Amino acid sequence: MQYNMKKNLLVVAMAVVSTAAFAQKFAHINSQECFQLMPEMDEVRSQMDAIVNENQEVMKSMYEEYQSKVQTYQQKAATWTAAVKESKEKEIMEMENRIQETQSNMQQELQSIQNKLTAPVMKKFQDTLNEVAKNGGYIYVFDASSALYVDPAQSVDLTPAVRKFLGIKEGRTLEQLAAEMQAKQQAQ
């Protein structure tokens, strides 16, 4: 009798756990879409474009100066003494190194600035997602863009709700954003 009672309790416990597992609410979101389409990210991209353009101007100026020195060297090297020629070669090599170093420093600085600018935007996105998920009673939210499989019948798409909270214009897509960015690049 005691064995049957333990067995019955085990069956009841499994049924309760099983029912609780099925009562859990799952959701998914396209986080990349929401994050990239946030109005704040438009401002980040604008600031980054301005910095990139400024950096390109600096690099262009450095490269033009380098080209001028190389051209002068090629035109006059035959008439220079060995000491002058060696000095000019050293000057050109130092300039090449400066260009490479400047380019590397600019890339690192760009990455750092981008991280600094996107950190508060990412926090806002994450806070909004957390609030929407918590208010909806969801215990798990999966990123649809990285999930191997999402069953839309058993998982709610939170993307529209999060987009609304973030102030993303209805109907705006990643494809439109890509087209906007490409048009901006071609206009430059």
Spell out the key features of this protein.
188 residues; mainly alpha; Protein Binding, DinI Protein, Chain A; 6 helices; 3 strands
What's the short version?
The chain is mostly helical and 188 residues long.
What would you note in describing this structure?
The termini are far apart. Strands 2-1-3 form a 3-stranded parallel beta sheet. It is elongated. Helix 3 packs antiparallel against helix 4 (82-136). It has helices at residues 2-23, 31-37, 39-76, 82-136, 159-166, 174-187, and strands at residues 26-29, 140-143, 155-157. It contains 6 helices and 3 strands; from the N terminus they run αβαααββαα. The chain has one domain (25-187): 2-Layer Sandwich (Protein Binding, DinI Protein, Chain A).
Number of helical elements: 6
CATH superfamily: Skp domain
> How much beta, percentage-wise?
5-15%
Structural class: mainly alpha
Q: What is the terminal-to-terminal distance? A: 85 Å
* C-alpha geometry: elongated
- Helicity, in percent? over 70%
Q: N-to-C SSE series?
A: HEHHHEEHH
Low-confidence stretches: 1-21
User: Reading side by side through the largest sheet, how are the strands ordered?
Assistant: 2-1-3
Topology:
Blueprint: H1 2-23, E1 26-29, H2 31-37, H3 39-76, H4 82-136, E2 140-143, E3 155-157, H5 159-166, H6 174-187
Parallel strand pairs: 1-2, 1-3
